[in-house]
Target: E3 ubiquitin-protein ligase
Amino acid sequence: VPTVPVKNLTGSSPVNPALAGITGILMSAAGLPVCLTRPPKLVLHPPPVSKSEIQSIPGISHTCRKTTKKQAKKGKTPEEVLKKYLQKVRHPPDEDCTICMERLSAPSGYKGPQPAVKPDLVGKLVKCGHVFHLHCLVAMYNNGNKDGSLQCPTCKTIYGVKTGTQPPGKMEYHIIPHALPGHSDCKTIRIIYNIPPGVQGPEHPNPGKSFTARGFPRHCYLPDSEKGRKVLKLLLVAWDRRLIFAIGTSSTTGESDTVIWNEIHHKTEFGSNLTGHGYPDINYLDNVLAELAAQGITEESLAQEKD
Model:
């Protein structure tokens, strides 16, 4: 039976109910059954929770974490950093370098600030096997975060430990005694992110310029299941590596120099999924695990953090 949403049933405006009524008459005339319904309601937050109802998460120490400072690889030149990820190629294949788009058999076409590497040297990344001008790889590294890691521009394989440029802030996490839609068998993990506005550092798009931080504190939700706790542990690694947020241009408002999400999706709706940022969503936990893996954060990362 098709449903016809009716808005403002108790309001003063007769327009929406009238349109629904006309639609219902036309459908009835065509011999179609009609069922008038109210539109579903957006539920962003859980019912009120007292402090005594909030619980810490078993197996996870503390309930709050602040941004750690970037772990820069000091004393190493870009050439020294990249050397451990590369093998030299004496006879380059007959194909283009996907960074500068010149043939690998010809010198690099990179025209920016010149690295201290000969433009005709070619190297192969050891894990994925993709081949580039060394000149181009060093230039790409210099234009990035310079944190001792490298990400293949062709297949996104990560070498080393990738870190981001997330500005300083705080991440809180605890259990609340309410269930998410689709997860009625468990309680809920609530994450609260809080990042204040500030001034951009040297790793940000416009160093020295102020940045805004809209919509904070941001509340996000995970089921308190085995897989939900696994996701939380990996999100804590992402937070420590400054990968959850970045400074850039908002895709929703168009505002520049503001704090934005950084390719790791979160659920910010508690009791509905009208915007696609809530529950039920049977694929979400698997999807976010894949997004974390794309940032180099897997179960192996948890062992590395302990080490």
In short: Confidence is low (pLDDT under 50) at residues 6-15.
